[in-house]
Amino acid sequence: MLIALALALDAFAVAIAAGAYYVKASNHQRFRLSFHFGLFQFIMPILGWFSGIEIVEIIEIFDHWIAMIILSIIGIKMIYEGLNNSENIIKKDVSKGWSLILLSIATSIDAFAVGFSIGIIKGTIIVPSIMIGIVASLMTLFGLWIGEKLSFKFGKRISVIGGLILIIIGFKILNEHMQII
Fold this sequence. Notes:
83% of the residues lie in helices and 0% in strands. It is mainly alpha-helical. The mean pLDDT is 80.
C-alpha cells in the first residue's frame, strides 16, 4: 500500500494541475484521467516484471529525460495560457489524445522499475499492480477535485501554478535519477 501511495503521488500532483487547468472538469474528463492514470500505473509494473535486465538498463538511461520533457512542455503551455489575458485561447483537453497518453506514461515510469524489482525477487505482480492502479485512480480523482477548488479561489493564476508544478515534478524526476548515477 505504501508503494502504491508513493507511486500515485506524481499522478496526484499532475491531477491537481489538470483540475486547476480545467477549472471545472466534466465527468468524462475525470473518468478519462483517473482511468488512464490507473491503467498505466497497473500495466507498467507488469511490463517491468516481464522485462529483462538489458531492457531496464537501456530505459534507465533516458526515462527520466522523457518524463521531464513531457511534463515541462505541458507545464509551459499551461503557464502561457494562464498568463495570456486573451479569452480566445482554446484550452486543449489534456484528458484526450496524445496529451493523455504522454501524461499517463510520464506519471507511471517509476511503476515500471517497481515491477522490475518485484520480478527480481520473484514476487507476484498481479495483486500489487491492481492495488497500484486503484490507488492511482483514486488519487487522480482527489487531485482533480483539489485543483478545481484551487482554481475557484485563485482563478487563472492557478493555471500558472499548475504549470510550474508540472515542470517541478519533471525536474524532480530528472534530479532523482541523476543522483542515482
